[in-house]
Amino acid sequence: xxxxxxxxxxxxxxxxxxxxxxxxxxxxxxxxxxxxxxxxxxxxxxxxxxxxxxxxxxxxxxxxxxxxxxxxxxxxxxxxxxxxxxxxxxxxxxxxxxxxxxxxxxxxxxxxxxxxxxxxxxxxxxxxxxxxxxxxxxxxxxxxxxxxxxxxxxxxxxxxxxxxxxxxxxxxxxxxxxxxxxxxxxxxxxxxxxxxxxxxxxxxxxxxxxxxxxxxxxxxxxxxxxxxxxxxxxxxxxxxxxxxxxxxxxxxxxxxx
Length: 257
Fold this sequence. Notes:
Layout: E1 4-13, E2 16-26, E3 31-35, H1 42-50, E4 57-62, E5 65-66, H2 70-73, E6 76-79, H3 91-101, H4 106-119, H5 135-147, E7 153-157, H6 165-180, E8 184-189, H7 192-195, E9 200-205, E10 208-213, H8 215-222, H9 227-256
Helix pairs in contact: 3-4, 4-5, 8-9
């Protein structure tokens, strides 16, 4: 499989179980969304896929290669929730620095900087130090740095937070164009209208996968009106066994009295 394969991945931090036996297959040239509330494990999972965290168990393959792999890291673009930029450098200098890390030089580097700058709408501010950028501008530049080396795999953690609706629409158009060119995109979001723009989704809660499929498939399976109601429906199903266990426990306690 030439996309991303996540097999039986679990991760804990001390006694806290962050991920429990996650298995997902993300086809090449598709946009796959991870949705769920804060703390459900989305960021932990993408950091493992990027190689920034090590899972306790399970296996990750990207483009048919098992991680960790330096060659795959060079083909992967990653955008974190928090901007990883140098505030004393301009936007252009940041892009140049990250581009050179990936081996870009000369006209190729200049062309890529021009392309990603236009994509994220920073043409008028690219030569300003990023310490003077707004939160939304930093977010846009972070997306540009993830795209600077034309990666085969793109991993985006809440990429459009703080970005205006018009630019957000343009960015999603570009993501779909990249997917059509064969780029595999893994994206996290808690915004349901963005989730519906993904080819496939995985709904996460408490480190577990509630359900997977296209937005339309999940809505149909849940008998819901939209993705938000589907998420609530699947979350309720996950909670139900716990409620039944508690009821049974209370019943047994009553019988023992």
